[in-house]
């Protein structure tokens, strides 16, 4: 870390503490050359997740878009906003912890269906009907049959 007073590039950390609700780290440093102290703030750099859609176009992952899709599937169902937020948090956390910076919309859909299945089966089927583009009642029945067999 370059000293703002003398320009020397070596310093030692005197004190570290979280700042801004844990979003930053505040560090007090001392220059090893001139012995003056200064403060730095470190921020975790977030790398955006790119979603590769079915038509091969790419866009930045949008948490709000995922939330809206889940809310639509859970409409008039006994699923709280807190549960929806937990699902979205879980999916976003899985994506962030993945080493891949590009993820397909299909894998996000699969993750979402997996989470919805454990929360509300009707919401799961609703989401699956849009995500898997059910063409007719037979496709819908096949999904329901699979769900019943798993029980």
TrEMBL record:
<feature type="zinc finger region">
    <location>
        <begin position="3"/>
        <end position="34"/>
    </location>
</feature>
<keyword id="KW-0678">Repressor</keyword>
<feature type="domain" description="ATP-cone">
    <location>
        <begin position="49"/>
        <end position="139"/>
    </location>
</feature>
<keyword id="KW-0863">Zinc-finger</keyword>
<keyword id="KW-0238">DNA-binding</keyword>
<dbReference type="GO" id="GO:0005524">
    <property type="term" value="F:ATP binding"/>
</dbReference>
<keyword id="KW-0862">Zinc</keyword>
<keyword id="KW-0804">Transcription</keyword>
<dbReference type="InterPro" id="IPR005144">
    <property type="entry name" value="ATP-cone_dom"/>
</dbReference>
<keyword id="KW-0479">Metal-binding</keyword>
<dbReference type="GO" id="GO:0045892">
    <property type="term" value="P:negative regulation of DNA-templated transcription"/>
</dbReference>
<dbReference type="Pfam" id="PF22811">
    <property type="entry name" value="Zn_ribbon_NrdR"/>
</dbReference>
<keyword id="KW-0547">Nucleotide-binding</keyword>
<dbReference type="InterPro" id="IPR003796">
    <property type="entry name" value="RNR_NrdR-like"/>
</dbReference>
<dbReference type="InterPro" id="IPR055173">
    <property type="entry name" value="NrdR-like_N"/>
</dbReference>
<dbReference type="GO" id="GO:0008270">
    <property type="term" value="F:zinc ion binding"/>
</dbReference>
<protein>
    <recommendedName>
        <fullName>Transcriptional repressor NrdR</fullName>
    </recommendedName>
</protein>
<comment type="function">
    <text>Negatively regulates transcription of bacterial ribonucleotide reductase nrd genes and operons by binding to NrdR-boxes.</text>
</comment>
<keyword id="KW-0805">Transcription regulation</keyword>
<dbReference type="GO" id="GO:0003677">
    <property type="term" value="F:DNA binding"/>
</dbReference>
<comment type="similarity">
    <text>Belongs to the NrdR family.</text>
</comment>
<keyword id="KW-0067">ATP-binding</keyword>
<dbReference type="Pfam" id="PF03477">
    <property type="entry name" value="ATP-cone"/>
</dbReference>
């Amino acid at each position: 870390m370059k000293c703002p007073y003398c320009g020397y590039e070596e310093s030692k950390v005197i004190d570290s503490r979280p700042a801004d609700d844990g979003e930053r780290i505040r560090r007090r440093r001392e220059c090893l050359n001139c012995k003056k102290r200064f403060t730095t703030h470190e921020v975790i750099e977030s790398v955006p997740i790119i979603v590769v859609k079915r038509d091969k176009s790419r866009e930045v992952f949008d948490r709000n878009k995922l939330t809206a899709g889940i809310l639509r599937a859970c409409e008039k169902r006994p699923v709280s906003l807190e549960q929806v937020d937990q699902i979205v948090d879980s999916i976003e956390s899985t994506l962030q912890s993945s080493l891949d910076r590009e993820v397909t919309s299909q894998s996000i859909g699969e993750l979402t269906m997996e989470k919805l299945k454990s929360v509300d089966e009707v919401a799961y089927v609703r989401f699956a009907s849009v995500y898997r583009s059910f063409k007719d009642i037979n496709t819908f029945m096949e999904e329901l049959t699979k769900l019943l067999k798993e029980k």
